[in-house]
Amino acid sequence: MAANGDIANKVGTYMLALAAAANKIPVYSVFSLSTVDLNVAAGDGIPIEERNAGEVLDIEINGARVTPEGAKARNPAFDITPNHLISALVTEKGIIYPPFTENLARLMGG
């Protein structure tokens, strides 16, 4: 997690947060404070693991490859959910509400 409350989580988390926001459903992130890096200002500074493209390209059905020859793909393991889609952050030291930058730093003693 970045200092501003942007969250890195498995791919699909951002999409689910967008769907929740569109349906006025609150989104909570539950995490350990050990995963917060106050030196990373925002989600665009979180390094994202890029997995082997073969995991999504080298797929066969009945022995036939289903992706075209020469196709390329990115295979990130995580995506970034921006803080404006998060209703609150739930930690072992309590619940943090927006504004996350100030309240997260205060809870962590920063």
Order of adjacent strands in the largest pleated sheet: 2-6-7
Structural class: alpha+beta
The averaged pLDDT comes out at: 95
- CATH C-level label: Alpha Beta
* Terminus-to-terminus distance: 15 Å
Write the CATH fold name: Rossmann fold
Count of discrete structural domains:
1
CATH architecture classification: 3-Layer(aba) Sandwich
Biggest sheet statistics: 3 strands, mixed
| SS element count, helices | 3
Q: How much strand content do the residues show?
A: 15-25%
Question: What ranges have pLDDT less than 50 throughout 5 or more consecutive residues?
Answer: none
Give helix and strand order, one letter per element, not per position. EHEHEEEEEH
Q: Supply the CATH superfamily name.
A: Translation initiation factor eif-2b, domain 2
Task: Please compute the radius of gyration using only Cα atoms.
Answer: 18 Å
How many β strands by DSSP?
7
* Molecular shape: elongated
Describe the structure.
The protein has a 3-stranded mixed sheet with strand order 2-6-7, with helices on one face. A two-stranded antiparallel ribbon has the order 1-5. It has a single domain, classed as Rossmann fold, CATH 3.40.50. The model has no long low-confidence stretch (mean pLDDT 95). With 110 residues, the protein is α+β, with helices and mostly antiparallel strands. It has helices at residues 13-22, 54-57, 100-107; strands spanning 7-10, 28-30, 60-61, 64-65, 78-81, 88-91, 94-96.
Which terms would index this structure?
single chain; 110 residues; alpha+beta; Rossmann fold; 3-stranded mixed beta sheet; two-stranded antiparallel ribbon
